[in-house]
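HOLO CASE FILE
Compound: adenosine-5'-diphosphate
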Amino acid sequence: MPTDQIVAIPTDLQLLSVSAEMFPFVKTGGLGDVAASLPVALRHHGVRTRTILPGYRSVMSALVQKTEAYVFHDMLGYRATVWEGTAHGHHLYAVDVPELFDRPGGPYLGPDGRDWPDNDIRFAVLSRVAACIAQGCLPNWRPDAVMTHDWQAGLVPAYLRYDELPAPPVAHVIHNMAFQGLFPRELLPRIGLPERAFAVDGVEFYGKVGYMKAALQIADRLITVSPTYAEEIQTAENGMGLEGLLSARAGALHGILNGIDLHDWNSLTDPAVIFPYAIGDIAGRRANKRVFQAEFGLPQDPNAMLLGIVSRLTRQKGVDILAEIAPRLFQANIQLAVVGVGDADIMQSFRALQLAYPRNLVCHLRYDETLGHRLHSAVDASLIPSRFEPCGLTQLHALRYGSVPIAARVGGLTDTIVDANAAAIEEGVANGILFSPTQADALYRAIKHGKKLFRQKSVWARLQRNGSLHDVSWHGKAAHYARLLLEMTGRAPVRIVGDSDIAPRLSDMGMPLSPNTSFTRTARMPQSRPRNPGLGRTDLPRFGTNA
Ligand code: ADP
Ligand code: GLC
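Model generated. Tokens follow.
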């Protein structure tokens, strides 16, 4: 089991994080969570993060003590004001271009559910402004390193390379290879990149401009959100056409698991949990199942296995195969609660199932942060039948709250769940159930296996307890981010304490140890945050087709 691992930096490293989402201002998935919780975790390692976000309405209204940091009179054809301020303890810059960001709907999709047609320009503007800040355009702050997230920030390293000005190094974090930000070649002059950038060693990808491709090609370090996904994306099956490039850059590619914010996910203080219970108090959570069943009109039967899922309802998440086997599950006295939003056809199939099986299925086909928390405190098992999963946060939420994850054996799910096979049960180390391939029969069999274990009360309780003891924090993971940032900026020394849960290739980095470096842990009091105040959260799935 990984333990606390510490990297301390004697002098603070100033980091600019560039993201299209950040909880609680704007979130459509795990990217928003990570962009918010990683900077907090990095603070313990001497990394001071400032995050730059598009000036969506929800971001602009959240900023406090806001000051005008810079005005670009012609930012790719727009007047862009960079506002600096704080919100929820984060130091933020917001790129305020009302024509691009002050609109209803979600960060990527309009109210009609389609991609905003100007997403190419919107995220080029975000990246171009971030690149200018990286180059030192602000009078009072300049970052030592830049961290870019997903395709929306992928052009930052490209701007830095083709400007040929002094600039800090960039670490690009890949959250999902399925979304690449591919746009027609004619875009190039419009986004302010020179013709020579349209090359195989630049932004060109199969005749298009590729925002993710640009970052994979140019960024100094590539980080993806689990060790297994780091391997998977080097294969044709999961590399989405970029496996060759990723293999060629394997030396710069690292897989570091995501963590979650343990204060947000504390069942004793979480306002979403009806009957608070201490992490690991398996008996203490029982009342939550009862009240959840009652709240949503399901029979209050403690022996009926209650399954839950909190997810984008898309093909990536394998929810279509869950809908396929649902009638078979319901015949076996299994209950299912779904909290999700996404593809119209998948939502429709759940609606139809709910009409047919009102005593077995309850659906909340919307985004609801509170229910997303409550569900894991109440259900017996949480389903994550993904076709691919770069990391996945829902299994971490489930583990922490004592719900047993039943998940596909892919990506970060493999790295965080110990399957309840006979040997693992015998050794007392199992914390969930893994299945493969992601197909209806395999999922059905995994749930049936789960039901068998559910009936063996002590075995099930052991799975739950192991899960809640599993380290889902950022501790060791943030240390490795810090370590990579240090290495990238040529800084030393660092001090490492404890085990590693990072991809093996990092273990031979051989950073020097300093006996004198000190470390201070900062205690955070539990705080209740408003749930779901973000932009367009209620109605829209995260990604459209512009990838
Ligand atoms: P992804 O980023 O691929 O959607 P993750 O598991 O990494 O998957 O993160 C999803 C995040 O979004 C989690 O915090 C999960 O709880 C949350 N989430 C997804 N759908 C919903 C929903 N309908 N309501 C509330 N929270 C949701
Ligand atoms: C992506 C991935 C998910 C990951 C999240 C945060 O959306 O689909 O697996 O947990 O990003 O990194």
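CASE NOTES: Residues 29-31, 33, 310-312, 339-341, 367-369, 372, 391-394, 397 surround adenosine-5'-diphosphate (ligand 1) (CB under 6 Å). The first helix runs from residue 30 to 43.
CLOSED: yes
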